[in-house]
From TrEMBL:
Protein name: Bifunctional enoyl-CoA hydratase/phosphate acetyltransferase
Phylogenetic classification of the source organism: Bacteria, Bacillati, Bacillota, Clostridia, Eubacteriales
Superkingdom: Bacteria
Family from the record: Belongs to the phosphate acetyltransferase and butyryltransferase family.
Signal peptide coordinates: none
InterPro entries associated with the record: P_Ac_Bu_trans (IPR012147), Phos_Acetyltrans/Butyryltrans (IPR050500), PTA_PTB (IPR002505)
Length: 302
């Protein structure tokens, strides 16, 4: 299967069993708007954790009558995180949605050795991007969590992104390990890592995908550029997943694509026992809505 755009994702979600999202610090208009819309559309059930009176008030302002039965009252962010994690561990919810709290507060709870839900050594952010100029949704990672990933962390980042794409229905996603150039240069450490990751894939250490690298951005997404440069690879011009060399490259590229390229984004944190729909506190309703859709569809593969 190839996911062409978020419109197709919306259609796919209608065909799977309904899941339950636990919303941590749910007293936020954009977050509630997205969550309540998925409920209204019959896509998701929800449990709202946060300041009860504010949640009901915001819901009313949005035109929804929020039942107190789906609210767990919580006055602090730390308490809301703990209650959300308990719901995941006890099966009361299928995945988490970040509301209006610091990302670090949520992730501190997720990685807690005693009470957390960390499943992999590395947590990473996968930004699913619906870009008008590209023929399918592309996963860009990591532009939000791991600042300067080591080779082993890059392997984990690939594994996390491949898990997303497998859950979305891809048999063998195409992974492009991006660099400024497409040739190995010992003076550019990211090209050395890219070549090693490709080798790890060929040796079966990185499974379930096809890894190419080093490869430049234009060669990864533009078949005509690959043809002109004579770059032959099944990934060239058709990348599903793009691995960034560091957080700056990932963050700048994703923002350029959304702000100037008209892309819509869904943000997912992987590496825990469940996906986490995670966006900036200032993210628009649409971004949070599509993040929920992506997590809901992913959970259908569990």
């Amino acid at each position: 299967m190839i996911l062409k755009d978020f419109k197709q994702l919306r259609q796919l979600v209608e065909s799977v069993d309904k899941r339950t999202v636990a919303v941590v610090a749910a007293h936020d208009a954009h977050t509630l708007e997205a969550v309540l819309k998925t409920k209204d559309e019959g896509i998701l059930d929800h449990i709202l954790i946060g300041k009860k009176d504010e949640i009901i008030k915001i819901g009313n302002e949005l035109g929804y009558d929020v039942s107190p039965d789906v609210i767990i009252d919580s006055d602090t962010d730390e308490d809301a995180v703990a209650k959300g994690l308990d719901l995941i561990k006890t099966g009361g919810a299928d995945f988490l949605q970040k509301g209006i709290l610091q990302t670090s507060t949520l992730l501190k709870g997720v990685v807690n050795k005693e009470n957390g839900i960390k499943a992999r050594d590395t947590l990473s952010n996968v930004a699913l991007l619906d870009i008008p100029a590209y023929h399918k949704v592309v996963g860009l990672t990591d532009g939000g969590m791991v600042m300067y990933p080591t080779l082993e962390q890059k392997k984990d980042i690939i594994d996390n992104a491949v898990e997303v794409y497998k859950a979305l229905g891809y048999d063998n996603p195409k992974v492009a390990v991006l660099c400024a150039v497409e040739t190995l240069n010992p003076k550019m450490p990211e090209t050395v890592d890219a070549a090693e990751l490709k080798k790890m894939n060929q040796e079966g250490i990185i499974k379930g995908c096809v890894v190419e690298g080093p490869i430049s951005f234009d060669l990864a997404v533009d078949p005509e550029a690959a043809k002109i440069k004579g770059y032959e690879s099944p990934v060239a011009g058709d990348a599903d997943i793009i691995i960034m060399p560091d957080i700056s490259a990932g963050n700048l590229t994703s923002k350029a694509l959304t702000v100037l390229g008209g892309a819509m984004m869904a943000g997912i944190v992987m590496g825990a026992k469940c996906p986490i729909a995670l966006n900036s506190r200032s993210a628009a309703f649409e971004e949070k809505y599509y993040s929920l859709l992506a997590c809901a569809y992913m959970m259908s593969a569990k």
